[in-house]
DNA sequence: ATCCGGAGTGGAACCGGTTCCACTTTTGTA
DNA sequence: TACAAAAGTGGAACCGGTTCCACTCCGGAT
């Protein structure tokens, strides 16, 4: 357990001052004679010298690190998102410190404090909706914040990257309407969240465009955490006049909703047409494979990283950006035209 | 974007020296008069002071951070594992820096260098199998390394936490044998990995115990990356005498294997009994729900964290630990007795 | 009354980088 | 040939914590 060489060891071995070594390490910071540069690089190689990140951070006042704050990684959507973000970040030489919130504002607050201690230069997060003051303070302290997937209305001046929630919901609803469905169930996220309400609004807009009434009893807004999706499915199908089609627009509740449908032996699509949000790989392994709204995770990740790093380098104009990427409807076999005679 | 207060600001405001503030922050490091302690705490609260992690790390020589190095988070097994690890680490006040390797030793080497720069005090990893010297150097530099899920044979003195691979494979094979199957296909990981070979050996042992011959043409060892599972399934079922049961013991290939089975319209379990490794939530959403070997992720995570932190605090005896946790067989509906008459 | 030990305190060095500045050596140009 | 500008260099301060050490009190034991 010998200790690692420092910049002074390198300087001594190369017969130069630490300033020179530092300049070799950060070329923009000043000139170095070619011969000395070679020699220093040789010594660095020979000694296996690597600069300590902590020292640089202390001196620079901020770390080449970003925080990634998501609900939980057991949700495949966030897992795949995290995967892409870690990957993109690495390609820019930035490390990612990961924190999960379990949708709990207290844990979120904790995470933010910790990230602040670490002097991260940016945070990519799916906010729980709370901690408004904390987010604001974070940004005031010079941390570049980008919300991904969800927004917080009160924080207009924070960058947001999400899919076209309104549009996606509207289009999937329209698709079902075009198949003849008039009673379409909707399971969405909490209406206090931007995704939850935007998707509900898209659903409503589709009805309005088709001059269909919106039956509020067909709408379920359920939390992201827990298994409320199953309950919502149960109560929808137990209605006197159950829906003939269902959109699960709450990504986190898809699994529990489908589980319930399987348990109930619901015949899809003959008894119920189904569209779920997000193309989890397993959605094509069910019987039948599910029609989905595909969220382009790569795009979300790339935009988020670019925003954070762009702001870090001061390369972006001031105002907040709201980037919405398009989410495609991917038809598989869980939607069928409504055959009136077969309606019970 | 005002700047955050430092320990000297606190000291000045409280009318004490920095040493006193530092001792208030780290009680073990020395005595402080109760009155002053109160006053310092008050000022800290008032100023919203938080110690900079970088400064502490620089001084301490190591960070309260561990690195988590996994293949990729789009594999649900690793995602759920990462989720548990992040969670456990947080409960011990430790942050996690996440890196992915895509099973590529070069990326792994890169990750290790980066983690070393960050002076992490521990690393939890699913090693690719390469970089043996690098791992050794890491450990020599005082970084506590714990391998999870897989081991590297050459590194006998590194802690390992995994499931009972041999046992799990043996038991699932025995279960299929007890149902009357004699031609059991096996899709496992690369034989150069500990999981790949241990599971194969368990499979063989079950055959030996039952005095059944092992037909090597029924065995497929495929890489973790890519979609080789589908190909393996295809070639197994295309055999003149195809297997009547199949064990997919390569966690990363389960999805692609099942996808192929679905595409081929294979009747499970009548045509083929199926057991797959790891209880991904979606395995109960297929038709039929799949019988699985359940890996207790929580246990893996808890043990890994405890090993890393235990070593960090020097609370553990010297020798390397090899912890194997039991993985249960969870029967669902994808296994059926072999009905001889129905065999083609 | 004297001495000893421990509680309590502040000063200053240290961790390992970056950066500013003063200084010397080239180089280019009038 | 003279002199300004640019290239190249090293010293030292600085980032914000931790820790060692010397020093001052104080109570209790002798």
Overview of this protein structure:
2 copies of one chain form a homodimer. The first copy, chain A, has helices at residues 7-14, 18-25, 34-47, 53-60, 76-91, 105-117, 132-140, 165-178, 194-209, 228-237, 254-264, 297-312, and strands at residues 63-70, 95-100, 120-125, 144-148, 159-163, 184-188, 219-221, 245-248, 273-277, 291-294, 322-325, 328-330. In chain A, helix 9 (194-209) links the parallel strand 6 (184-188) and strand 7 (219-221). Helix content of chain A is 42%, strand content 17%. In chain A, strands 2-1-3-4-5-11 form a 6-stranded parallel sheet, sandwiched between helices. Strand 2 (95-100) of chain A pairs antiparallel with strand 2 of chain B. The structure holds a DNA duplex (30 and 30 nucleotides).
Salient structural properties:
12 strands, alpha/beta, six-stranded mixed sheet, DNA-binding, six-stranded parallel sheet, 12 helices, homodimer, 344 residues, elongated
Give the helix/strand layout.
The structure is a homodimer of 344-residue chains.
Chain A: H1 7-14, H2 18-25, H3 34-47, H4 53-60, E1 63-70, H5 76-91, E2 95-100, H6 105-117, E3 120-125, H7 132-140, E4 144-148, E5 159-163, H8 165-178, E6 184-188, H9 194-209, E7 219-221, H10 228-237, E8 245-248, H11 254-264, E9 273-277, E10 291-294, H12 297-312, E11 322-325, E12 328-330
Parallel strand pairs in A: 1-2, 1-3, 3-4, 4-5, 5-11, 6-7, 6-8, 8-9, 9-10
Antiparallel strand pairs in A: 10-12
Helix pairs in contact in A: 1-2, 1-3, 5-12, 8-9, 10-11
The structure holds a DNA duplex (30 and 30 nucleotides).
């Amino acid at each position: 357990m010998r200790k690692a060489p420092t910049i002074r060891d390198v300087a001594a071995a190369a017969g130069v001052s630490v300033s020179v070594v530092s300049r070799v390490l950060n070329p923009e910071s000043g000139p170095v004679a070619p011969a000395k540069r070679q020699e220093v690089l040789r010594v660095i190689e020979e000694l296996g010298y690597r600069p300590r990140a902590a020292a640089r951070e202390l001196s620079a006042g901020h770390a080449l690190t970003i925080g990634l704050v998501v609900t939980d990684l057991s949700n495949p959507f966030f897992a795949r998102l995290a995967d892409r973000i870690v990957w993109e970040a690495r390609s820019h030489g930035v490390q990612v410190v990961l924190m999960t919130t379990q949708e709990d504002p207290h844990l979120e607050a904790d995470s933010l404090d910790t990230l602040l201690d670490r002097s991260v230069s940016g945070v990519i997060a799916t906010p729980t909706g709370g901690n408004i003051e904390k987010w604001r303070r974070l940004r005031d302290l010079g941390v570049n914040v980008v919300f991904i997937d969800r927004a917080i209305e009160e924080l207009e001046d924070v960058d947001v990257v999400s899919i076209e929630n309104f549009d996606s919901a509207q289009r999937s609803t329209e698709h079902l309407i075009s198949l003849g469905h008039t009673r379409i169930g909707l399971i969405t996220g909490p209406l206090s969240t931007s995704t939850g309400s935007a998707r509900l609004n898209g659903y409503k807009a589709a009805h309005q465009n088709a001059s269909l009434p919106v039956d509020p009893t067909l709408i379920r807004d359920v939390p992201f955490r827990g298994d409320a999706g199953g309950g919502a499915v149960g109560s929808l199908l137990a209605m006197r006049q159950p829906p003939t089609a269902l959109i699960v627009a709450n990504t986190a509740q898809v699994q529990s909703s489908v589980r319930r449908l399987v348990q109930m032996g619901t015949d899809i699509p003959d008894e119920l047409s189904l569209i779920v949000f997000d193309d989890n790989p397993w959605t094509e392994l069910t019987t039948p494979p599910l029609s989905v709204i595909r969220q382009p995770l790569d795009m979300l990740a790339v935009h988020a990283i670019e925003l954070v790093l762009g702001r870090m380098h001061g390369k972006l104009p001031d105002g907040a950006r709201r980037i919405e990427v398009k989410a495609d409807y991917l038809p598989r076999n869980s939607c069928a035209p409504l055959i009136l005679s077969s309606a019970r």
